[in-house]
Amino acid sequence: MARQKGIIKLKGTVGDITFYQTADGHMAREKTALDGNRIAIDPAFVRTRENNTEFAEAAKAGKLIRDAVNPLMATAKDRRVVSRLLKLMSKIRTLDATNVRGLRTVGTAIALPSAKTLLKGFNFNDRSHLAAVLLNQYSLNTGTGVISMNALTPANEIDQLTAATHFSIKGGWAKIDFVNKTYELKLSNIVNLALNSAPSNVILTPTALPAGAGTSLYLLQVEYFQLVNGVQYSLKNGAYNALSVIEVI
Question: Which helix (H) or strand (E) is 50 found in, with range?
Fold first, then answer.
């Protein structure tokens, strides 16, 4: 893979070179001479088939998470969240010590404490980490999903952005079944405060408990707004909003 330089950027295929655009810019690569049917049946490519199968499994697991938390992630994500989640799910999948290579799954591995540890703390917006935005020590009741903050002082405990005037805090509890590919998300109430407001206690309570079996992901989001003529507008299209997995059970 090579990066295109110069004024004119190409897209498409010229001879054996394919030109395309990614988040990293305009790229070029040589077309492969391998035939898909050969990869599918040739014993020499058994490792490739195993890798492809497990790659697809990790990709599906990442998409399942994105679908489950989309109501929160829609306003707090970076352009690489898909690839970052894929990388994380691939790492978790390798922890599966039950199934043979090629058949390892995130659904089996996620039951392990080490897998849950890898997922805990994941930030959906790599430009704005929750730990850097919210400095208050919050508590989580994993049985009810309630997130509590005592005497939150925005001036000292919320990252102060120059253009922002207000912020919102919201919680979420997602139950994801990586085996059956199902999920349910329950959101909390939203607490909206001015960045210069007085200290206050914050209680975020889910509307209900998510149903079904699976892995519980507890999430916390901080979203910034700018007040203009009595209306709060999301700041810079969510570039500074933070969303993180604060616990996995």
Answer: helix 46-68
